[in-house]
């Protein structure tokens, strides 16, 4: 038997948002207009081509007082009560929605009752809860507090203890992966018969999530290899146009890096089932900024200690290592400087023109001008932290969330920029250093082992981010 849960509640309480988030399905229609759902719609959860769980969206209660009155008149219990009520309600047009919402419960679905916990409990809520209690079905209440208003929380909990097997606080707009798993674990405890099938569902969820993380690690590894080995070149027509050519070449190099990064982000987005709704990156995020924006290098780059460690390993230039504390000040003139030579000079702190050009592999003489492959390991850390930021944002953008409205404007943890590698040990820096060297060489057993070690480090980081709440 495939476990099924019907999502019930009063109109515009967040039922569709809860369903969309639990099912990881952004095709669920989420509307602020009450009463738009008039028919039940089932959303299957499919893993490895097999349906393991289903959630059913239902209309909101429209006439709970009349439904409760009829329930009491019928003097039946459980399945028999539901069957007789639905037969009777079929002849009463104004009970269409109330009859429809009880259909999945009649066929055996468990109940998830959703309320907006930011408002007081009303008599109509008590009627709805009594109706669901009389069905005799396993039932959980979810308190979906809008705008993080918890003033009425205790009153709701008192009512829920009278009528439900369990109750959970769950913000459908901000629920992380860890919170979704915790809710499923609570669901399996509301009835003994649900425990085994839902245990299998939870295990399948966890295994699939691990598989997604493995694929994400592969995507990020490929992104780093493609970006750090990227080369673009052109031929000079004359010495007089050298400056203009170098400017255009650097723009092309930067555009190529951005394109590769966007492609990797789209792959991660698809992997975590954000297929329809065009979710937004936080407006304040570094991910909104160009890869070479000074803030990226200030916040996402290597620490002074890491620069010293990497410098001692040898084999990879440390472009910002000479004056990492002043990097942001140097980059303050980035867009105003003009030429590629000036831009790179600002980026790496005023070295000689020859040193500046060699940072990205730009030869000074001859007819061909080339940028790349990158000779500094700094770029690896910037790209890596941006990829981890995007991953964190993606896995924590709940599928039931549609925009930033309703927030107080403050970012959630998943929307706050952070440097994931800032506290990495010297052993982890060595792994990155060895990976940076390995991607420049022909594939061999030694290089393959180095790349696999880096991939394992990535996977470990992704798993840690997944567990955060």
Give a written overview of the molecule.
This protein has helices at 15-23, 64-74, 78-89, 96-101, 103-106, 123-135, 153-163, 177-187, 192-228, 242-271, 294-299, 304-313, 327-331, 334-337, 340-347, 353-359, 378-395, 426-438, 445-466, and strands spanning 4-9, 41-47, 50-57, 110-115, 139-143, 166-169, 232-235, 368-371. The protein is α/β, with parallel strands linked by helices and 469 residues long. It folds into two domains: 4-172, Rossmann fold; 212-466, no CATH class. The strands form two sheets. The chain has a six-stranded mixed sheet, with helices on both faces. It has a two-stranded antiparallel ribbon with strand order 7-8. Helix 2 runs parallel beside helix 6 and helix 8 runs antiparallel to helix 9 (192-228). The longest helix is centred in the middle third of the chain and has 37 residues, at 192-228.
